[in-house]
Amino acid sequence: MKTKLLFSAVAMVAGSLLADTTPGDLITNAVTSLDAQPSYSWKTTVVVPDDSPFKPGPSTGKLVKGGYSDLTTTRGDATTEIISKGDAIAISSPDNGWQSAADLENAQGPGRFMVMQARSAKAPTAQILDLASAATALKQDGDVISGDLTEAGAKAQLAFRGRRGGGGGPGGPGGGAGPEVSGAKGSVKFWITGGNLTKFEYKVSGSMSFNGNDMAIDRDTTTEFTDIGTTKVTVPPEAQKILDAKPAAPAAN
């Protein structure tokens, strides 16, 4: 009898703990678990309307904890690869091969844009927490947790930030103030199986004003995780030289 009572008490406590776990808690726990892994890979795809002037291709990423990260993005036929470790960044462009961020940040044209993308990049797990905090009334249906984004949350995703896991958005090398965004709305989904985060998706729409010209934006971005714990980053010799180089000393006055 005592054993049965003890078993019943344990079951009640476990049931109570499960009942108190919110969808937001499940997302946070899954992110914590993924961040604790030694490495992982991801692939991000972005779907936009056929008439959209900006059609980002798929991007892939690899992250080794305490080591290198590797982001490869495509736009049309152009492929850009960014490898970093700490503050050291090496960028490979279609026309100029491997260069350091310091070489490119004062350059004209797309080089400056690539540096901005590299320096502002976030790991996908950081973006997941941003999305979850910007979602309202998260609800769980099996392995899927979903919710609508607040207007501010949708607007943040519409604005270009060059995220490592989010697919990015329209933007250019000019820098300066970003475009004005209005009518922003969106939704988000997270797939969590057995406590493991396997995929997330967010859809955003709204209107952007570029130099007084309004343009409708409708974007569906999906990121899937693979090779968790087994991902490795191979650094080309040209990139390794850049990453190992010591920063130049400032010029004397």
What does this entry look like structurally?
With 253 residues, the chain is of the alpha+beta class. It has a single domain, classed as outer membrane lipoprotein receptor (LolB), chain A, CATH 2.50.20. It contains 7 helices and 11 strands. A hairpin with a 2-residue loop joins strand 9 and strand 10. It is globular, with a radius of gyration of 21 Å.
Helix tally equals: 7
**Major pleated sheet:** 11 strands, antiparallel
Structural class: alpha+beta
What do we call the CATH topology?
outer membrane lipoprotein receptor (LolB), chain A
Radius of gyration: 21 Å
Helical content class = 25-40%
Number of strands: 11
> Any idea how many domains?
1
Low-confidence stretches: 5-18, 161-176
Described by its quaternary structure, the protein is single chain
Query: What is the topology, as strand order, of the major beta sheet?
Result: 6-5-4-3-2-1-11-10-9-8-7
Q: Write the element-wise H/E pattern from the N-terminal end onward.
A: HHEEEEEEHHHEEHEEEH
What key attributes describe this structure?
about 250 residues; alpha+beta; outer membrane lipoprotein receptor (LolB), chain A; 11-stranded antiparallel beta sheet; 7 helices; 11 strands; about 30% helix; about 40% strand
What is this entry, summarized?
The protein has 253 residues and is of the alpha+beta class. The chain contains seven helices and eleven strands.
Give the helix/strand layout:
Elements: H1 2-20, H2 23-35, E1 39-47, E2 56-64, E3 69-75, E4 78-85, E5 88-93, E6 97-100, H3 101-104, H4 110-120, H5 124-133, E7 135-141, E8 144-149, H6 151-158, E9 180-193, E10 196-210, E11 213-226, H7 237-244
Antiparallel strand pairs: 1-2, 1-11, 2-3, 3-4, 4-5, 5-6, 7-8, 8-9, 9-10, 10-11
